[in-house]
Specification:
- With 271 residues, the protein is α+β, with helices and mostly antiparallel strands.
- It has six helices and 16 strands.
- The chain folds into two domains: 132 residues, no CATH class; 77 residues, no CATH class.
- The two termini are 32 Å apart.
């Protein structure tokens, strides 16, 4: 089951079990800045529910190497306090981690430290009070965020990863046009077949051709152009940073042996 299918299945199931005066709003999709489901009652936002597949990732934050140790990046928008113990563990083994590449190295910090990071992310930073998944029997399992370790094993990894994407600014439009036109010539696509337009914050490229470029990355001088999602008749172009800093990220793996769903707790809370 794909993550899109998982989200829809869980969303529809939660709608079916909550009281009629509760509004269930599905955000989710590929935007990791938003939790998947918002729960509202009597016009008031109550909390969110996060949807996870049986194997998924969470809790990413960036660290910087100053040549002697790793430090917490000021660019992170996460709770620093729960990240520090994990960084300290990495620094105790600095020689092991200092040459980390994109393949990554497992970070064997304690399970309690890993759990604290993920629970803090969802409960404190995103107001997620419940997490939901679908088990191998395709049953929806719902549980309180603070009970995460009863349902998922949590493993930390350190790997180098480019920073996230952002929309193309108006000042970069011409650079992006020039780079994309040069790139498309390699596909035999003349510039007359390509149009660019701005739709709000989106910078959209439309090609009069059947070529599929979604997912392509094109190097510019100071950043990378990413051919992103479909938008109307074209593709949104976004910007990826050339920075390649180490990231700590956690893998969650569902435990077949667990206390079972806590959906009755959710229903009771919403009455």
């Amino acid at each position: 089951m794909t993550w899109e299918e998982t989200e829809i299945r869980v969303y529809e199931y939660i709608k079916s079990i909550v009281p009629n005066n509760v509004k269930v709003i599905h955000y989710g999709k590929s935007d990791s800045s938003l939790s998947d489901i918002k729960i509202m009652k009597d016009g008031q936002e109550l909390f969110y529910i996060e949807i996870k597949q049986m194997i998924s990732q969470a809790g990413q934050f960036v660290i910087l190497d100053d040549g002697e140790k790793f430090i917490f990046s000021k660019q992170n928008k996460v709770d620093k306090e729960v990240c520090i113990p994990i960084i300290e563990f990495i620094n105790e083994n600095y020689d092991k981690y200092k040459s980390v590449g994109t393949a990554g190295i497992e970070v064997n910090s304690s399970h309690s430290q890993n759990e604290e990071r993920i629970v803090s992310l969802y409960k404190n930073e995103k107001n997620v009070q419940y997490i939901a998944t679908i088990d191998k029997d395709e049953k929806v399992i719902i549980f309180k965020t603070e009970d995460l370790s009863n349902y998922f094993d949590i493993t930390g990894f350190l790997r180098r990863k480019r920073s996230g994407s952002s929309n193309i600014s108006k000042t970069n439009e011409q650079v992006v046009k020039d780079e994309m036109i040069n790139f498309l010539e390699e596909y035999g696509i003349h510039k007359d077949k390509v149009t660019f337009e701005r739709d709000g914050n989106y910078f959209v490229m439309t090609i009069d051709s059947n070529v599929n470029l979604e997912g392509k990355k094109i190097e510019a001088d100071d950043f990378i152009i990413f051919v992103s999602k479909k938008h109307k008749s074209g593709n949104v172009l976004t910007r990826l940073s050339n920075t390649n800093n180490p990231n700590v990220i956690f893998t969650l793996e569902y435990k077949e042996s667990n206390p079972g769903t806590q959906e009755n707790d959710l229903i009771t809370k919403l009455r």
